[in-house]
Structures are given as C-alpha cells and as structure tokens.
Amino acid sequence: QVQLVESGGGLVQAGGSLRLSCAASTTIFSIPYMGWYRQGPGKQRELVASVRFGNDNIEYGDAVKGRFTISKDRAKNTVYLQMNSLKPEDTAVYYCYALANAGSTSYGYWGQGTQVTVSS
After folding, report:
1. Tens digit of pLDDT per residue, the chain (120 long)?
2. Are the C-beta atoms of 19 and 81 separated by less than 8 Å?
C-alpha cells in the first residue's frame, strides 16, 4: 500500500503563489513516478506536472508551462509544486498521483485532493 499526504492548498489572489507538497509513504513499493493533476468545476482531470524519479524527466501541462515548477526529494518520495502567477482558471482540486512498483506489477495511487482557489 502507498499513502499520499498532500498539503499546501488554499485561497490566493490572482498573481499570487502557492506551494503544494505530496509525500508518498510505503515500506515495500518503489516509486518511479509522481505527479500533480487537477480537476476544475465541470472539467476533466488534467495533468499539471509530473516527474520520473529515475531520469528526472519532467512534463508540464500546456496551461501551466512557465508558471509552475515541480521538484522532488527522491529520498523522501516527495514532490513539490510551486505555483506562481496564479490565475482564476487555475482554480481546481489538485490531486497527487504516484505510480508504485512491486516487482513487475505497477499500481497507481491518488491523493485525497487539495483545493486551490484563485480569486480575481
């Protein structure tokens, strides 16, 4: 099992910044990939940013490129999402996702979500 603990959401004015963190706790799995996804009102869940721990490959959703930065602490199985220049359209529930490997089997885990609200 993998437990994901998210923190850092909240209310901020447009142009402001927030930092999200997500820690994955596990005793038997390896975590090769973690990311942040979001789901706004009436919208589908979309990729915000992700990172592969093995090769540091990072991917950003088009809507956040140049404004958001994902970073990781591999030793702690933790990812951070620094969100700058926030816009009202960034308002969403942000979910942490972790891909966990146990031998040759992979499992996906979602966090409970953290609300980010950007006021205009």
Report:
1. 899 999 999 999 999 999 999 999 988 889 999 999 999 999 999 999 999 998 889 999 999 999 999 999 988 999 999 999 999 999 999 999 999 998 899 999 999 999 999 999
2. yes
DSSP string of 1-31, one letter each residue? --EEEEE--EEEETT--EEEEEEEE-SS-EE
78: its two tokens: 């933790």
Q: Which two tokens stand for residue 104?
A: 């040759």
Q: For residue 114, give Cα distances in angstroms to 4, 10, 39.
A: 12, 8, 10
Distances (CA, A) of 37 to 75, 94, 104: 22, 6, 25
